[in-house]
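Target chain:
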Amino acid sequence: MGSSAAEISSARVLNNLAVTDELKDVGSGTGQTHTHDDLDSAAFSFTASSDPPGKYYSAQTLALVAGVATIDLTSLPGLQAAIDGTGLKLQFLRIRGEADGSNAVLNIAPGAVNPYSLFGAANDIDYPAACTKPFTFEFDEGTEDVDATHKNIDLAGTGTDSFFVEMILG
């Protein structure tokens, strides 16, 4: 690895869903509610010694060129220096479209060359058009190690759309 990039001392991820329904027509009671909070999880912190570990954080605004871009996990922008993720796993990925909702659909897939399989060898996912909310993926050691033949993530969209991309490798 040999990177002189800044290392994570702590990173806190909070990804919750809690819904309260107001029940209608349930007899004499009014204002009765029911809460669904199965996905209302506690915040998770990444550190070098956590499970899964978090060693490096990278963030960038990535503009497509002629509708495409490739993220190379062996050459990511870092706070102090470029980050080489060789030997690490992608633990966390967040992608957000244009703040004004002007982005088209963005396809996120293993690279055509030296593919890094985020969602399985031949799987991909689409970030919706006009979406301004982030897509967040926590992989929990479920991805492969980054190496010379498993390092690229391809993004395919429209024109010069840009997306904010955050990653944690560990």
About this structure: The chain has a mean pLDDT of 85. The chain has one domain: 11-169. The two ends are 12 Å apart (CA to CA). The first strand starts at residue 11 and ends at 13.
